[in-house]
Amino acid sequence: MRRFFPTSRVALALAAGVRAQSTAEKKLTIPEGAKERKELFDKLTKSVEEHKKSVDESKKNILYTAAEAQNIRRKFNDEIDAAKSEAVLNFGKDMIEISDSLIAVCRSIAEYRKKKENIEPKVSSLFSGVDLSLKVVDSVLGRHGIKKVDIPLGSKYNPDTSVHTFTSPETPEVPAGCVTEVVKQAYSYNGNIVRHAEVGIAEKPDKDVSP
C-alpha cells in the first residue's frame, strides 16, 4: 500500500534541498574581481622579479667596473713607480761616477798628507773642500735611496756585491779569497745592487814544481 506525504512536508524537503544547493554554489563561486586582482598580483610579482634581476645585473656591472678601474689605477701607479726608479737610477749612475772621481782625489790627498808634514792653508782648505764635496754627493745619493755597500778589507769575497779585478798574494792578515783592496765602492737601491764594487782579492802563491 502506497503512502503519500503531506504536501507541506514535501515542500519543506524541496526547500531545504534548494537552500543546500544554493549554499554549495556560493562556496564554489569566485568572488567578483578576484581574478583581476590575482592577475594584477602576478604581474606585480613578475615585475618585481625582473627589477630584482636588473638590480643584480647592475650590481655586477658596478663591481666589475670598480675592479677594472682599480686594476688600471694599480697599473698606472706601477708605471709611475717604474719611471721614478728609472729616473733615480739614471741620476744615481751619474752621481756615482762623480763620487768615484772624488774618492780617487781624496785617496791622493791622503797619500799627499802622509808625505807632506806642513801643508799651506790654501792647499789644506782646497783639500777640505774636496772632502766636503764627497760628503755632499753621498748625502744626495742617500736622499734618493742609493746607499754605499760596506765591504771591509779582509772580508770574504762576495760575488753578489763585488767583482775582483786583480789578485795579490795572501798575508797572515788577509787570507786567500778575502778582499785586499776596494777600488770602487758598491751601491744599492731599494736593497738591490745597482753597481758592484771593484776589489782585489788575496790568493795563495803558486808553488814551484821541481822537475
Overview of the structural elements:
With 211 residues, the chain is an alpha+beta fold. The protein folds into two domains: 45-144; 147-210, Head domain of nucleotide exchange factor GrpE (Nucleotide Exchange Factor Grpe, Chain A, domain 2). The chain is built from three helices and six strands. The protein has helices spanning 7-28, 34-115, 121-143, and strands spanning 146-149, 162-169, 179-184, 186-189, 192-195, 197-203. The chain has a three-stranded antiparallel β-sheet. Strands 2-6-3 form a three-stranded mixed β-sheet, with no helix packed on it. The longest helix has 82 residues, at 34-115.
Class of secondary structure makeup: alpha+beta
What's the tally of helices? 3
Biggest β-sheet: strands ordered side by side in the sheet: 1-4-5
| Amino-to-carboxy terminus distance | 163 Å
GO molecular function: adenyl-nucleotide exchange factor activity; protein homodimerization activity; protein-folding chaperone binding; unfolded protein binding
InterPro entries: GrpE, GrpE_CC, GrpE_head
GO cellular component, one term: PAM complex, Tim23 associated import motor
Keywords: Chaperone, Coiled coil, Signal
